[in-house]
């Protein structure tokens, strides 16, 4: 029973990463890219922030894939 | 003349960001937005956009199923799939459904506009991370030669859609609405599937869909 609860919690954490954290990171990245387009003078600084975001995004992608695999992965459930 | 694009994503924050990026490109015009696969299919049937930018992980009818459905009604439509994951099954599923491009959602830089331009010219596109990973797997020889769930191979695409929705707990009436079918047609699909798969009831269908990875436990069940 305990194991089932832990599994469910982990899956829920993975789904939260996938459904809430990742879209927010991507959306923030898109907005920063727009700022970089509109204000070329900020390009270097914005690019640095984008690198940090992308690092976070990579972690989120890997962790959420481990915790709540893509529905297209066999036996992902 | 700009290409008319429909955006399909259940996250408004994503649609807004993509719309803003496409707003800077003269060759694309966002003509509609949809949060669900069912709404996207209805929009395409009515307005026939040139392109659809499709999130793969939609609730209900997922991005792969929605792509297949859209192309059934509007075969000339070019569908570009966006995904959080770059696993082989997502990529292969999207391409099999008829998508012309598979783009990985990233924060730092987007290849979205480049990909859309290539597809608008009649080409196909995979994000570099996706193609690198596929190439590497092919070189290592560990790319699956068969799709997941070989037992489901002899089901028609429509039957697979119905099976997944049955396993998701949808009633025949709800499935009929989602897939734009008559209720008795859905019941007929269910009967045929049970016969083909050798199961006698909905529980058997659900178990099979879960064990082959066609569907996952619903979020509410998982959350409890």
List keywords for this structure.
heterodimer; A: 77 residues; 0% strand; B: 224 residues; Arc Repressor Mutant, subunit A; 2 domains; 6-stranded parallel beta sheet; 6 strands; globular
Structure write-up:
The complex is a heterodimer of chains A (77) and B (224). The two termini of chain A are 18 Å apart. Chain A has two helices and no strands. In chain A, 81% of the residues lie in helices and 0% in strands. In chain A, 27% of the residues are buried. Chain A has one domain. Chain A is an all-alpha fold and 77 residues long. Chain B is of the alpha/beta class and 224 residues long. Chain B has two domains: 138 residues, Rossmann fold; 74 residues, Arc Repressor Mutant, subunit A. Helix content of chain B is 51%, strand content 13%. Chain B contains eleven helices and six strands. Chain B has a six-stranded parallel beta sheet, sandwiched between helices. The C terminus of chain B is likely disordered. Classes of the chains: A mainly alpha (77), B alpha/beta (224). The interface between A and B is large, with 39 and 39 residues.
How many DSSP E strands of chain A? Answer: 0
> What is the tally of helical segments of chain A?
2
Oligomer: heterodimer
Q: Count all strands of chain B and give the number.
A: 6
Give the biggest beta sheet of chain B. 6 strands, parallel
Helix content of chain A: over 70%
What does the average pLDDT of chain A come to?
85
